[in-house]
Design a protein that fits this description.
The chain is α/β, with parallel strands linked by helices. Helix content is 47%, strand content 10%. The two termini are 29 Å apart.
Length: 239
């Protein structure tokens, strides 16, 4: 039986415009390569994920930018001004405005297989617009943006709302996202199998099933998987 696929947006389908951010950093005297910036962002998200595991829930755009800039080596006196500039720019037009070739290729393959798909994302109301601008919207039946729905992952209600709207049961679904305590365990709590995207192998010692990018999704979804196994439900290991 083909499972319904729910996918996260940020860091899974849609990515920040690192070229733009690097240009802003160069304006301030910090010539940081895009590859380094992307890796730094992934490490900051990983650190935040660890904090979520200890009970901390604070997260906002400016705080994220500040954390990234500090880790990237920006001097303390420059962190807040640059982060403020990035936050203002993101408010004016989303910085999460790029995708990758492997994303489009994977979606084309999945579409050819008849895979039904929708997006569930913690966002600010602009996910549908971002997907449309990137030409990805036609692949998805629906987009469930937490700002619009009124609940944000890991709250089970956002997953339940999506399933209810589409007439699905948890056992019919699999969720794919990049954050363990937000995406993986959130989906598990709603009864969905989950898969984590981990491009840099930062979560290698954590429980669950991981793929480096969504490029691996077509093979995973067409393989002989036991979707009700503990591997896809690491929440069971959390007790």
């Amino acid at each position: 039986m083909q499972r319904y696929l729910f996918i996260d947006a940020g860091w899974t389908l849609v990515f920040p415009d690192c070229d733009l951010i690097c240009n802003i950093l160069r304006d301030h005297g910090y010539p940081i390569a895009e590859e380094r910036l992307e890796r730094t962002m992934a490490e900051v998200i990983y650190d935040h994920d660890e904090l979520l595991g200890s009970g901390r829930r604070d997260w906002n755009t400016k705080g994220f930018f500040e954390w990234v800039l500090e880790r990237a080596g920006v001097l303390a006196q420059h962190v807040s001004p640059i982060a403020g500039r990035l936050e203002t720019l993101n408010a004016e037009r989303s910085i999460w405005s790029t995708t990758r070739a492997w994303v489009r290729d994977a979606l084309v393959r999945l579409d050819a297989l008849g895979q039904r798909m929708s997006v569930i994302s913690n966002a600010d109301g602009r996910v549908a617009q971002e997907l449309t601008q990137l030409g990805l919207a036609p692949f998805f039946e629906a987009v469930f943006d937490s700002h619009v729905v009124g609940f944000a992952k890991p709250d089970v209600r956002v997953f339940q709302h999506a399933m209810r709207e589409l007439g699905l049961q948890p056992e019919d679904c699999v969720y794919v996202g990049d954050m363990y305590f937000i995406d993986v365990l959130g989906a598990n709590r709603a009864g969905m199998a989950s898969v984590q995207v981990d491009r840099y192998g930062l979560y290698d010692t954590w429980p669950g099933v991981r793929i480096p990018t969504v490029a691996s999704l077509p093979d995973l979804l067409t393989g002989d998987q036991n979707w009700r196994s503990d591997a896809f439900f690491p929440l069971r290991a959390e007790g």
